[in-house]
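User: New here, any thoughts?
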Amino acid sequence: MEHFPNINELVLGVNQPNTAAQSLYTKCGFVDEGRLATGLRGEIKVMSYYISKIDKEKLD
């Protein structure tokens, strides 16, 4: 994280019907906060992963 020291969140979008991917992202620590967007193939669920100080230390 030396190149991006102020980054504290990763955000991704997953197609709403893709429940398998949503489950995987949740297991990896992403959080569904109820945000939706419209993508090329319909509704996209926006998920966030909040990077803690401990995570940053692991990446350095």
